[in-house]
Amino acid sequence: MFELLATDPECGARRGRMSLPHGTVETPAFMPVGTQGSVKTLHPAEVAELGAEMILGNTYHLWLRPGPELIREAGGLHCFAGWERPLLTDSGGFQVWSLARLRKITEEGVRFQSHLDGTPLLLTPERSMEIQAALGSDVAMLFDECPPYPCSRDYAAGSLALTTRWARRCKEWVDRHAPPSGTGRQHHFGIVQGSTWADLREQSARELVDLDLDGYAVGGVSVGEPEAAMLDAIDHAVPFLPAAKPRYAMGLGTPPQLLAMIARGIDLFDCVMPTRLARHGVAFTPDGPIHLKTRQFEHDHRPLCEAAHPHVAGFSRAFIRHLFRAGEILALRLLSFHNLHFYVRLMRQARQAIEAGSYRSFQQEFLSRYTPNHSP
RNA sequence: GGGUAGGUUCCGGAGCGGUCAAACGGGGCAGACUGUAAAUCUGCUGGCUCACGCCUUCGCUGGUUCGAAUCCAGCCCUGCCCA
């Protein structure tokens, strides 16, 4: 299912290919986030056109609305949402963290109160797998608990152990309900937890690897931790993950962070940043992010950047600023398209650099120009 | 000409004797956003110091009062109604 095509001689960067029921994904890859089955503001054809090969959907949100039965009835999430390429579904574990005020964690699972109408709900490892099976995603994530940052070592250790027990239950459910082989089958990734402790990350990784899953993710990042802690979490987990399987850093990150994690051997990313910031008026450029709503772009008649996709290259910064101020939906669409294209293009450049054996210099060249808080 | 309702900080619009530099909304200006409860959220938005504080503002001019955007008088302007 995962083919390792090349490894950079100077760092851990890998060039790979995932073969999934709905197509292949060249890695390193970035997955746009489509929580509700839709990458916000964009038509699936546009997401495909900007170059995304795989997107992400969310179990928790699709469970609550419209419900897995309806999606199964429609022929699965691919048919229902009009996305023909590979699709990964998150397990709902992250909502345990992000909707923390409305939940209670037990051995059995997580008792939620629906954020929509307050209905009491119970999400268990088995239920998460069952829902994801109904959604028919190419990759389903095992149900995990994502601890907050910071958290005590005791909490992290207990949380990790729970995530492992839940992972075993997920695997058991899958083994009972789905055939273990077959090219069209759903694949399953485990999620390494352990917060900021190296030994806990190692323990979590080893316990999940014992389950012989199709891929492994590093979770518990993108929860407000400093960047150094984020990179450490990756470093503490990756050495214990099998080289022959894909590695996925969940919920990350900024362009420099993505390049840093690729150098550490990560193959797969997802992040709301390009789409959310787009809707909030921020465009990514090779010089760094620019806040288009600010006055400095009032008379800026240049395109967003020289690398802009033809679909957006014809629009000036001044015009897009005008669209934002006027509350026009096109502003959100143009920047969503542009930012995702920027991310996907960055991954393509990274892949080419790895193939050429020059990933380090590519990364350095990118960083030398990119200013995190850019103001021209 | 008569009657009537008003004129408030960029706009709309509260306030109707002190706790008013003046609610709230809009607009404007910044900032935040990392497995999406986010086309969202937060802050600032008279001047000077930008902390305390001080100064100048609520159509204009006078007056009452310890004290007025708030009460009184005159004037100017605007909407509506009647001639």
Your description of this structure?
- The structure is a single chain.
- With 376 residues, the chain is an alpha/beta fold.
- The chain is 41% helix and 17% strand.
- It is built from 15 helices and 16 strands.
- The chain has an eight-stranded parallel sheet. A three-stranded antiparallel sheet has the order 1-2-3. The chain has a three-stranded antiparallel sheet with strand order 7-8-9.
- α7 packs parallel to α8 (198-209).
- The radius of gyration is 20 Å and the shape is globular.
- The protein starts with a strand and ends in a 7-residue tail after the last helix.
- The mean pLDDT is 95.
- The structure holds one RNA strand of 83 nucleotides.
Provide the residue-averaged pLDDT.
Answer: 95
**Would you report the number of β strands?**
16
Query: Count of DSSP helices?
Result: 15
So what's the overall shape?
globular
Identify low-pLDDT runs.
none
Which structural class do you get from the secondary structure elements?
Answer: alpha/beta
Q: Could you tell me how far the N terminus lies from the C terminus, measured between alpha carbons in angstroms?
A: 45 Å
Q: Estimate the helix proportion, in percent.
A: 40-55%
Overview in brief:
Helices cover 41% and strands 17% of the residues.
Question: Which descriptors apply to this entry?
Answer:
alpha/beta; 8-stranded parallel sheet; 3-stranded antiparallel sheet; 376 residues; RNA-binding; 17% strand
